[in-house]
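Reminder to self: tokens first, then the designed residues, so the page reads top to bottom the way the pipeline ran.
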């Protein structure tokens, strides 16, 4: 990460993130710094509707009133035919009276049968023209009531051409056996199972049964409860997961070997460790598995206990780059380390178990909390392992990717595409790199103790997390701001206004006149910006208060002066703007 060359191929992926996908931000980056065409997202077959591609955003009141209490999902995957047959039993509660159910499901699936509370419905009682399965209820369900819907469906699921930059099934093979994976973050869970495709559609408990041929393994979220032999040379793998985001439900089928072990947590519990890798990759996989425990040491020391110790820390090798599938993270980095000495992809996806899966953004507009923190964890790990030089180098590398086209936060409900796509007004890849740099500068401003205390509260809902005293939770940008204010002991609204709700970066203007140095912040819009600045004068560093956004200090005319010598401030950089300019 220390070579200032134009990124290509896998280097592009590393610089621009594991999911800088489905984004026309990537297209913008291509234009800016001449990145190669293979990174462009493509959409596969069969085509999906705009409704299926949409995830989140404004939600109809009757859909918003629904909550999934439990899901039983049985899936049979036929890799040779690229075909999926499923039965989903959804236990739903509602906070308002319902005369119909609105469930998200790709219309490429034919729904053959629906039953409500165990009673089959007549054909014609459901329809799905655009990817919103509408089921007419035989009798209304009152506010506060529950209903159980059983849905049988089958068809060819949407195929991802360039996962994880686009979503769907990935059909591949390894040594003559099927190798199958899914991704669904951007387009949503409705690509392969009937669900509520918005953040609050999180499922408290779920059983995932995957039928696959003998000779391959079917790996999914949560805990493996049983493997049941069935007729016809197939087996059903039964998994049970708790409190899972709907887009994180994952199918992985392949000729896997398993490495497993346990991690003795500093919090007194044990974390089951599992790595499923392709046959023939034993040595490489063992090298990655060796990273599990030291990485957990870091996360538990800096943030807190691994959130899903009651299930597992799982990683499965996939025919696409990666995704943070809760307790079974997808991994496709081919076991490569870079100059940092650790596997950035494994580390980044593991970060999402805290920032994304334990703490989930309440709306896509808050998604920078997932990716900004997730991206920031790699330089922090570099600092933890090797010190300030590695941290500074990694932060400098990320700084080159900040585009500043749109604010990180809009303050309104948004879909995933409205966040990831610049052409739809989203910040695009800035949720990764600018988000990480906002956290970097904020940490400098308020100090480590306050920063990590507020971060812990954001993740766990409390400052003293221990196994058993917290549950997965939703969080918002306003809550982040409130927690940081409380930890800092002052209102930082001026900081959030510029860094989160403005696109342009603040500019630090330096004026030197004789033995006087004047520093002045120029920021978007009106208002104060009292961000202190470190100044190095003949090798001695001092922190200059900028209470009015401006300060003048005495500096000998002959002195050598370096402003912000440790690059702690996210500010405008003409050098980076010149680097990003079209060539």
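Designed residues (583 positions):
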């Amino acid at each position: 990460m220390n070579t200032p060359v134009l990124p290509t191929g896998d280097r592009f992926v590393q610089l621009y993130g594991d999911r800088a996908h489905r984004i026309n931000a990537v297209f913008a980056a291509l234009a800016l710094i001449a990145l190669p065409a293979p990174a462009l997202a493509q959409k596969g077959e069969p085509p999906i509707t705009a409704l299926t591609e949409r995830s989140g955003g404004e939600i109809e009141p009757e859909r918003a009133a629904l909550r999934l209490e439990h899901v039983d999902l049985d899936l049979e995957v036929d890799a040779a035919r690229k075909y999926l047959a499923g039965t989903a039993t959804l236990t739903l509660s509602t906070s308002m009276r319902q005369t119909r159910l609105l469930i998200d499901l790709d219309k490429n699936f034919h729904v053959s049968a629906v039953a409500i509370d165990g009673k089959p419905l007549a054909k014609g009682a459901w329809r799905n023209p655009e990817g919103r399965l509408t089921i007419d209820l035989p009798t209304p369900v009152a506010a506060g009531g529950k209903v159980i819907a059983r849905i049988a469906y089958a068809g060819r699921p949407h195929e991802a051409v360039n996962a994880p930059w686009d979503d769907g099934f990935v059909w591949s093979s390894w040594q003559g056996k099927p190798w199958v994976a899914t991704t669904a973050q951007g387009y949503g869970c409705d690509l392969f199972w009937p669900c509520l495709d918005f953040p609050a559609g999180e499922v408290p408990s779920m059983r995932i049964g995957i039928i696959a041929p003998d000779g391959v393994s079917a790996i999914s979220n949560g805990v493996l409860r049983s493997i049941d032999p069935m007729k016809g040379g197939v087996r059903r793998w039964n998994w049970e997961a708790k409190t899972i985001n709907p887009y994180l439900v994952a199918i992985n089928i392949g000729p896997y070997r398993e490495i497993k072990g346990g991690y003795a947590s500093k919090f007194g519990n044990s974390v089951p460790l599992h790595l499923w890798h392709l046959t023939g990759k034993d040595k490489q996989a063992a090298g990655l598995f060796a990273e599990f425990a030291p990485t957990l040491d870091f996360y538990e020391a800096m943030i807190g206990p691994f959130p899903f110790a009651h299930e597992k820390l799982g990683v499965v090798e996939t025919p696409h780059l990666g995704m943070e599938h809760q307790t079974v993270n997808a991994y496709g980095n081919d076991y490569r380390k870079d100059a940092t000495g650790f596997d950035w992809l494994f580390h980044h996806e593991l970060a999402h178990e805290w920032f994304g899966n334990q703490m989930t953004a309440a709306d896509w507009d808050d998604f920078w909390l997932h990716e900004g923190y997730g991206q920031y964890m790699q330089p922090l790990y570099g600092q933890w392992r090797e010190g300030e030089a590695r941290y500074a180098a990694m932060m400098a590398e990320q700084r080159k990717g900040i585009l500043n086209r749109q604010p990180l936060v809009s303050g309104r409900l948004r879909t995933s595409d409205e966040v990831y796509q610049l052409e739809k007004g989203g910040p695009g890849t800035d949720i990764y790199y600018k988000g990480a740099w906002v956290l970097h500068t904020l940490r400098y401003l308020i100090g480590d103790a306050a920063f990590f205390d507020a971060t812990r509260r954001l993740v766990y809902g409390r400052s003293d997390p221990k196994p058993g005293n917290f549950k997965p939770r939703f969080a918002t940008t306003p809550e982040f701001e409130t927690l940081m204010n409380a930890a800092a002991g002052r209102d930082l609204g001026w900081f959030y206004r510029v860094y989160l709700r403005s696109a342009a970066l603040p500019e630090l203007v330096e004026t030197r006149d004789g033995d006087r140095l004047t520093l002045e912040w120029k920021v978007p819009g009106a208002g104060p910006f009292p961000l202190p600045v470190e100044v190095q004068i003949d090798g001695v560093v001092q922190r200059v208060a900028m209470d009015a956004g401006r300060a003048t200090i005495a500096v000998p005319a002959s002195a050598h002066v370096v402003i912000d010598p440790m690059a702690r401030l996210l500010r405008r950089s003409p050098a980076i703007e010149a680097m990003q300019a079209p060539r």
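DSSP finds 15 helices and 28 strands in the chain.
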